[in-house]
Amino acid sequence: xxxxxxxxxxxxxxxxxxxxxxxxxxxxxxxxxxxxxxxxxxxxxxxxxxxxxxxxxxxxxxxxxxxxxxxxxxxxxxxxxxxxxxxxxxxxxxxxxxxxxxxxxxxxxxxxxxxxxxxxxxxxxxxxxxxxxxxxxxxxxxxxxxxxxxxxxxxxxxxxxxxxxxxxxxxxxxxxxxxxxxxxxxxxxxxxxxxxxxxxxxxxxxxxxxxxxxxxxxxxxxxxxxxxxxxxxxxxxxxxxxxxxxxxxxxxxxxxxxxxxxxxxxxxxxxxxxxxxxxx
Length: 280
Prior knowledge:
The chain is of the alpha/beta class and 280 residues long. The protein has a single domain (3-278), classed as TIM Barrel, CATH 3.20.20.150. It contains ten helices and ten strands. It has helices at residues 7-11, 31-36, 44-50, 68-80, 99-119, 137-158, 174-184, 202-209, 234-243, 260-278; strands at 20-26, 55-59, 84-89, 123-126, 161-165, 189-194, 213-218, 221-222, 230-231, 247-252. An eight-stranded parallel β-barrel has the order 1-2-3-4-5-6-7-10, surrounded by six helices. Strands 8-9 form a two-stranded antiparallel sheet.
């Protein structure tokens, strides 16, 4: 059986069409205290418990270490409190014009695949990157396919899905994202759907990549309606996600400037309600 024969297993639920939705917190929501050191990653575990969410999507930017001395106690703490570290989010730029630079990018992705595996996370959010000014988007897309294709083999060995996020640059448009994922042709490469990142036709583009989503991050605003962002219609989004048959996490990624400790809990309460409303 060819690898492409497995793609429908990734794109569609294996056990029917009903959605199964769970909620999570993106560590990025608390970027300021994490960056300042006034909050530790361990503090996200009781926060998840208090707000009745099941998972954590750990943005790795402020990890104090990638050694087991940091990772394993965090993994144990989460397990003992019934919280799943299901995803980590990393920075990558796969739009690299030379084989040497792509090899370097691949090595970085492999490093984080190992970290995810040690944490027990089954998913990594990755970026496609920015098209160099001296290159075309078509050229850059081939470079992303090259890096992701080789990374997918390593990810498969460790049981980790790579989720390519709609994050501007080469991934500004849903059609390009779908093209890249299809060309990689691996059940270990999918889409990390960020609901707030499209700059045009937000709901239409979200619908286009939903069949390939392995993780969904919720924002309070959507772009793509001209110069101004609009409040995200979470009910509409969750309905779309449920109708697509998606099964997995809805992770709150709070990006507003107002205090996260004040504003995140009511948003999680709302997200919990929608997950229950549209789940199996």
